[in-house]
Amino acid sequence: DNEGEGFLLDSWPIGYGYSRGISHNAQMRYNISERDGKKLSGAIAIFGGVAPAVIYNNTIYYEADRLAGSPMFQGEGAPFTSSIWGKSGKPILHVYNNIFITKKARTDAVSNNVWSDGAGTFNFDNNIWWRVEGGFRAQWGTKVITSWRGWQAKGFDPHGLNTDPLLVGPLGEGPLAYNLQPRSPAINRARVVTEALRGMGLQDAFGVPTPQGGAYDIGAAEYAP
Question: Angle at the Cα of 213 (from 129 to 148), degrees rounded to 5?
Answer without folding.
Answer: 15
